[in-house]
Design brief:
By secondary structure, this protein is of the alpha+beta class. The protein has three helices and four strands. The chain folds into two domains: 116 residues; 70 residues, 2-Layer Sandwich (Gyrase A, domain 2), CATH 3.30.1360. It is 65% helix and 20% strand. It has a four-stranded antiparallel sheet, covered by helices on one side.
């Protein structure tokens, strides 16, 4: 009886592993090379590479832009602080300026009042001097007022003739104008004698 051993002879384990790995590696590179020969795959790979590079570049530019923006923001904050300090100085200056202007206005007003009073007193003295020379005999004043250019005279006379003479004298005098008799009447003076009381109005000629 003849026996035939049909079992295949086993290869050494190390040889099989190396051969299998090399075949697989060759198969992988071969498959990749084969895929890259396809124009569509080649374009897709190129797009992926370009996209990755572009994304990296954009990320870098974004960081650079953010850094620049922060620098600009810091500069603006610093400029704003400087402007706020300048505004505070200007505000204080404006306050001081208003106080000085108010003080100047007060001084100016006082000077104007003093000047006006001085002129009025000078004018009143001149008017009184003129009146004293224009008053007829036996005629005297009991009240004399000057406000701006308005003049009010009150007085007494022995009779109404002196009042008429006084009106005529004032009308002819260069110091007065618009001389008018406001009222006249007979009254008793302090001694009980009857006199002619009068009130006149006039304006000082400018």
């Amino acid at each position: 009886m003849i026996k035939i051993n049909l079992a295949t002879r086993k290869q050494p384990a190390g040889v099989d592993a190396k051969a299998s790995s090399g075949a697989k590696l060759n198969l992988d590179f071969g498959s990749i090379a084969e895929l890259l020969r396809d124009p569509v795959i080649k374009k897709l790979v190129l797009v992926l590479i370009v996209g990755s590079l572009a994304w990296g570049y954009l990320d870098f530019k974004k960081e650079e832009l953010l850094t620049n923006q922060q620098t600009v923001i810091d500069s603006l904050h610093k400029k704003r602080e400087e402007l706020e300090r300048e505004a505070a100085k200007i505000k204080n200056y404006e306050k001081d300026k208003l106080e000085v202007e108010a003080a100047q206005a007060l001084i100016r007003t006082k000077l104007e009042v003093m000047t006006k009073l001085t002129l009025e007193r000078a004018g009143a003295s001149k008017i009184l001097k003129t009146l004293s020379s224009a008053l007829p005999p036996e005629t005297w004043l009991t009240d004399f007022r000057v406000k701006d250019s308005e003049i009010v005279l009150k007085g007494n006379a022995v009779d109404f003739t002196q009042i008429s003479d006084l009106i005529k004298a004032l009308q002819e005098n260069a110091t007065f104008m618009e001389v008018t008799l406001k009222s006249s009447q007979t009254v008793k003076d302090e001694s009980g004698a009857q006199v002619a009381a009068f009130e006149m109005g006039a304006k000082q000629r400018q």
